[in-house]
Design a protein that fits this description.
3 strands; mainly alpha; 3-stranded antiparallel sheet
Protein backbone atom coordinates (compact mmCIF):
# COMPACT_ATOMS: atom_id res chain seq x y z
CA UNK A 1 0.00 0.00 0.00
CA UNK A 2 1.41 3.41 -0.86
CA UNK A 3 1.68 6.18 1.69
CA UNK A 4 -1.09 8.29 0.20
CA UNK A 5 -3.61 5.43 0.37
CA UNK A 6 -2.46 4.53 3.88
CA UNK A 7 -2.80 8.16 4.99
CA UNK A 8 -6.32 8.36 3.57
CA UNK A 9 -7.25 5.11 5.30
CA UNK A 10 -5.98 6.38 8.64
CA UNK A 11 -7.84 9.66 8.16
CA UNK A 12 -11.07 7.71 7.60
CA UNK A 13 -10.38 6.04 10.96
CA UNK A 14 -10.22 9.44 12.66
CA UNK A 15 -6.61 10.63 12.45
CA UNK A 16 -5.61 14.04 11.16
CA UNK A 17 -3.36 14.20 8.10
CA UNK A 18 -0.30 14.99 10.22
CA UNK A 19 -1.13 12.25 12.74
CA UNK A 20 -1.47 9.73 9.92
CA UNK A 21 1.82 10.80 8.33
CA UNK A 22 3.67 10.75 11.66
CA UNK A 23 2.30 7.30 12.50
CA UNK A 24 3.31 5.91 9.10
CA UNK A 25 6.78 7.44 9.43
CA UNK A 26 7.19 5.79 12.82
CA UNK A 27 6.08 2.46 11.38
CA UNK A 28 8.89 2.80 8.83
CA UNK A 29 11.49 4.01 11.33
CA UNK A 30 10.56 1.78 14.26
CA UNK A 31 11.33 4.70 16.57
CA UNK A 32 12.54 8.21 16.09
CA UNK A 33 12.93 11.77 17.26
CA UNK A 34 10.89 14.64 15.82
CA UNK A 35 13.63 15.65 13.38
CA UNK A 36 13.82 12.13 11.91
CA UNK A 37 10.04 11.79 11.78
CA UNK A 38 9.75 15.18 10.09
CA UNK A 39 12.04 14.11 7.25
CA UNK A 40 10.27 10.80 6.61
CA UNK A 41 6.72 12.10 7.13
CA UNK A 42 7.08 15.37 5.20
CA UNK A 43 5.58 17.15 8.22
CA UNK A 44 7.15 20.30 9.68
CA UNK A 45 9.11 19.38 12.80
CA UNK A 46 7.11 21.90 14.83
CA UNK A 47 3.93 20.01 13.86
CA UNK A 48 5.34 16.58 14.71
CA UNK A 49 5.03 17.32 18.43
CA UNK A 50 1.30 18.07 18.31
CA UNK A 51 0.61 15.10 16.07
CA UNK A 52 2.63 12.84 18.37
CA UNK A 53 0.70 14.12 21.38
CA UNK A 54 -2.58 13.28 19.65
CA UNK A 55 -1.32 9.83 18.70
CA UNK A 56 -0.15 9.18 22.26
CA UNK A 57 -3.56 10.17 23.67
CA UNK A 58 -5.12 7.61 21.33
CA UNK A 59 -2.66 4.95 22.47
CA UNK A 60 -1.02 4.64 19.05
CA UNK A 61 2.51 5.63 20.05
CA UNK A 62 4.64 5.60 23.16
CA UNK A 63 6.86 8.47 24.19
CA UNK A 64 10.29 7.94 25.71
CA UNK A 65 11.18 10.94 27.84
CA UNK A 66 14.74 11.57 26.81
CA UNK A 67 16.69 14.31 25.09
CA UNK A 68 15.59 14.44 22.38
CA UNK A 69 12.18 12.86 22.96
CA UNK A 70 11.89 9.56 21.11
CA UNK A 71 8.61 8.14 19.85
CA UNK A 72 7.75 4.51 19.12
CA UNK A 73 4.58 3.17 17.48
CA UNK A 74 2.45 0.36 18.83
CA UNK A 75 2.13 -2.68 16.57
CA UNK A 76 -0.05 -2.37 13.49
CA UNK A 77 -2.46 -4.91 14.98
CA UNK A 78 -2.79 -2.86 18.19
CA UNK A 79 -3.29 0.31 16.15
CA UNK A 80 -5.96 -1.32 14.01
CA UNK A 81 -7.87 -2.52 17.07
CA UNK A 82 -7.62 0.83 18.84
CA UNK A 83 -8.77 2.82 15.82
CA UNK A 84 -11.66 0.48 15.04
CA UNK A 85 -12.78 0.56 18.67
CA UNK A 86 -12.63 4.36 18.69
CA UNK A 87 -14.56 4.49 15.41
CA UNK A 88 -17.24 2.18 16.81
CA UNK A 89 -17.60 4.37 19.91
CA UNK A 90 -18.14 7.52 17.86
CA UNK A 91 -20.19 5.88 15.10
Amino acid sequence: MNDERATEGLKRLGLTTYEARVFLALEKLGRGAASEISEVADVPRSQVYGAAEGLEKQGLIETQQSTPTVYRPVTLEQARRLLLDQLAETG
